[in-house]
Write a structure and sequence with these properties.
By secondary structure, the chain is an alpha/beta fold. The chain contains 13 helices and 23 strands. The two termini are about 45 Å apart. It binds cytidine-5'-monophosphate (C5P).
Length: about 450
């Protein structure tokens, strides 16, 4: 089955909105509505002063999510969620601060993290757009301190959108008015499009295998596993939104084709998956094996239904083809093979051994606890290992976010970056945020 969809820029994107205490905050509920209408998922963080202008109730009702102000949770229920500032930064595809007031602009430029809004500014993943819409009185805007801080922010990766000229709340006329929500939404779209355009995956052909396989015992029974396909589908969607041409080969799952994925092939058994993978893999640039392919299949598949008897029954199982290994054995120098590993013991050692045995370029080692990680859950804890044995331990992440990190690592491989200098156990600055790089 092949399905085609037209990618839409904001649809499916995670937009983090930071609202500061300026009169232009009154425009933000309209912006939230606009973004939601275009299919974006919106989360809001506010400064204390922002809530003088617009209520948290309005913002959370429109965004359909809680609004955050402080880094430290206030309710008993939220007590456990002390890393919200990290997860919001990981989650966001873009961080938009509007209106950005003189005070918050100064805090951002100074790297101060004294509330959720300023802290998320630091936790946002490095390549994601940070867009500031300064809005204030004309005199404040042109002040030396505001201009100096904005110049620093714009020189350090922020998109600073010049305010408009016109009537201001002070009754004066000047430059300082925040653009209307439709202009802000269009700016966010452009920034996200530009970011996707900058991706090294743009125009690349990527094959992703996902889900379980079913190996038939007879006409009504099969051997399979609990894989939901969520990880592979998240990777396929994330790669498509970076501009890659994605072929998704999926075992039996209950998931919709992610937006932007050009081709989907549904298969059932390992052999069927192998056939499709061989076809799609030949000319591809990157092969990502996220499928939980059954290792064994019954030697013979019985017709109809095997009748039970009073005695025991023995089933002879034979090995299935190793799909990613076949690809990786024949791959050309420009092609990359990315695999997954799930091992009950000595996870990292076994994953690294698998990386070498299968000739992979990168392996994502799953930590399996069966509750927050593993099959049929929405989160995963991955450790990425490359051929130089450089290791990036990711925190527990939503599978979408884990997919983004995996693709960041793939882009790093493509860029031929020398990788991070391995310094035993020390936290180093990385291309993907809070990760720990180890020797
Ligand atoms: O050998 P193991 O099953 O642990 O390897 C896991 C990796 O190999 C995953 O990337 C999985 O998609 C891939 N694989 C495969 N074909 C198989 C078994 C695993 O492509 N028959």
């Amino acid at each position: 089955m092949a399905e085609k969809e037209t990618p839409s820029v904001l649809a499916g994107k995670n937009i983090l909105l930071g609202i500061c205490g300026g009169i232009a905050a009154y425009k933000m509920p309209m912006l939230i509505r606009l973004l939601k209408k275009q299919g974006a998922d919106v989360r809001v963080v506010v400064t204390g002063a922002a809530t003088r202008f617009v209520t948290e109730l309005t913002l959370s009702t429109l965004s359909q999510a809680p609004v955050f102000k402080e880094v430290f949770p206030r309710t008993a229920e939220a007590e456990t969620d002390w890393t919200r500032h990290i997860s919001l930064g990981e989650w966001a595809d873009a961080y938009v601060i509007a209106p950005a007031t003189a005070n918050t602009i100064a805090r951002l430029a100074a790297g101060i993290c004294d509330d959720m809004l300023t802290t998320c500014f630091i936790t946002l993943r490095p390549k994601k757009p940070k867009i500031l819409f300064p809005a204030m009185d004309g005199g404040m805007y042109s002040s030396a301190s505001v201009q100096k801080n904005l110049a620093w922010l714009s020189g350090n990766g922020c998109l600073v959108v010049e305010p408009e000229s016109g009537d201001l709340a002070s009754g004066q006329c000047g430059t300082g008015r925040m653009p209307e929500p439709d202009v802000i939404a269009a700016t966010i779209e452009q920034a996200i499009e530009k970011e996707a355009g900058n991706s090294l995956l743009r125009g690349k052909s990527i094959v992703v295998t996902a889900g379980p396989t079913r190996e038939k015992i007879d006409g009504v029974r099969f051997i399979s596993n609990y894989s939901s396909g969520k990880m592979g589908f998240a990777i396929a969607g994330a790669a498509a939104s970076r501009g890659a041409s994605v072929t998704l080969i999926s075992g039996p799952v209950h998931l919709e084709t992610p937006r932007g994925v050009v081709t989907r092939r549904n298969v059932e058994s390992a052999e069927e998956m192998q056939r499709e993978a061989a076809l799609a893999g030949t000319g591809c640039d990157i092969f990502i094996g996220a499928a939980a392919v059954a290792d064994y299949r019954p030697e013979k598949t019985a017709e109809g239904k095997i009748r039970k008897t009073n005695g025991n029954m023995a089933l002879t199982l034979v090995r299935t083809p190793d799909i990613i290994e076949e690809f990786a054995r024949r791959k050309q120098p420009h092609q990359l093979a990315i695999g997954f590993s799930l091992e009950p013991t000595e996870e990292l050692r076994n994953a690294e051994e698998k990386l070498r045995r299968k000739n992979l370029d990168l392996i994502a080692c799953n930590t399996f606890d069966g509750t927050t990680t593993g099959f049929d859950v929405d989160t995963n804890r991955l450790t990425l290992i490359n051929r130089r044995a450089e290791t990036v331990r990711l925190p527990l992440l939503d599978k979408q976010e884990a997919a983004e990190h995996l693709l960041d690592a793939v882009e790093e491989l493509m860029a031929g970056e020398r990788g991070r200098q391995a310094v035993g156990g020390k936290i180093l600055q990385s291309g993907t945020g809070q990760n720990q790089h180890e020797a």
